[in-house]
Amino acid sequence: MSTNTSWDQEEERMYNELRDMLDEVEGQEQRKKRLNRMIKHLMGSRRGTDVQRAEGYAG
């Protein structure tokens, strides 16, 4: 259960960081590029956590 709580906190932190980063970027095209990069990073992080859980590692 603590793993889920830790992940939820990390996810919230990353969301807030993303929102702040997007606020700093000027121009729609640049925002879109930055957002897509961040989404790929988040998906990769989540996938890695899921693999660790499947293998029985604590997060």
Describe how the helices and strands are arranged:
Elements: H1 2-24, H2 28-55
Helix pairs in contact: 1-2
Kindly list the characteristics that best describe this protein.
mainly alpha
Verbal overview:
The protein has a domain at 28-52. By secondary structure, it is mostly helical. It is built from 2 helices and no strands. Helix 1 runs antiparallel to helix 2. The longest helix is centred in the C-terminal third of the chain and has 28 residues, at 28-55. The chain has helices at 2-24, 28-55.
Q: How would you describe the shape? A: elongated
Distance N terminus to C terminus?
10 Å
Mean pLDDT metric: 75
Order of helices and strands: HH
- Main pleated-sheet profile: none
Provide a brief overview of the structure:
Helix content is 86%, strand content 0%. By secondary structure, the protein is an all-alpha fold.
